[in-house]
Amino acid sequence: VCEESAARWTRLVLADEPDVVVVALGRDDAPMPLQASAAGGITTEQLRAQSQQMAASGSVLRRSMELLLSMGLPLVLFDGVPVEEEFDSGLDKLALLLGIDGVVHRSSGGVLAAVAEIADVTHSVAETALRLLVIGDSTSLGVAQALSEGSSGRVHVTWAGANGCPFVRAEAVRPSSNAA
Fold first, then answer.
1. 138, 28 in Cβ contact below 8 A?
2. What is the pLDDT of residue 15?
3. Helices of type H across the chain
4. pLDDT, tens digit, for every residue of 112-150?
5. β-sheet with 104-105: strand ranges across
6. What are φ and ψ of residue 158, in 5° steps?
7. How deeply is 120 buried, as exposed, middle or buried, from its count of CB atoms within 10 A (0-12, 13-18, 19+)?
8. Do residues 1 and 164 touch, judged by C-beta distance below 8 A?
């Protein structure tokens, strides 16, 4: 059973007390392109259902991000959905709406550079490693691993993502026909 994202993220931040939070999202929460029905077209019901799912997902993500921002922690954002995909995670729009500084990164290298910059500013003379909490969907596991391996010990990474827990309750999950 998946815990609601805003509650889970808040609980994990309070428990771990990180210096920086990385939010990493990928295809799990990006909408799937609609498939034509047996009659050969996309139905109004399919469009309505996808619109409702996208609105609900965006609302949950926004509430979760607002809670993180209210905690005053630096955020680094990663969108793992390739740019050429029909839909992405929505982090770009949300960052603009919420006034989040910086860019939404599309590579783990970009995330690593952003975290290194924060570490240089906040922990240049500190004796302790920068505490980094990586949250999001299953994409966040790979990002946490890359950050841990590329940090040279300057960053203590805790992965607190969730495998198979989309932002919106789902009755079923189907693999994309584009899945590798």
1. yes
2. 93
3. 5-16, 44-70, 91-98, 108-122, 139-149
4. 888 878 877 666 555 678 899 999 887 888 888 888 887
5. 104-105, 75-79, 20-25, 130-136, 155-159
6. -120, 125
7. exposed
8. no
Helix (H, G, I), strand (E, B) or coil at 39: coil
Instruction: Compute φ and ψ for 150, nearest 5 degrees.
Output: -95, 10
**In which residue are the tokens 């955020």 written?**
75
Contacts of 37 (CB under 8 A, 6+ apart): 43, 46
Local structure of 179: helix, strand or coil: coil
The whole-angstrom separation of Cα 171 and Cα 110 is: 35
This prediction has a pTM of 0.78
- DSSP H or E run through 11: helix 5-16
Residues 6+ apart with CB under 8 A from 36: 42
Per-residue CA distances from 140 to 32, 63, 120, 122, 178 (Å): 20, 19, 23, 23, 20
* DSSP type of residue 29: G
List pLDDT tens digits, range 78-113: 988 777 776 667 788 888 888 887 788 988 788 888
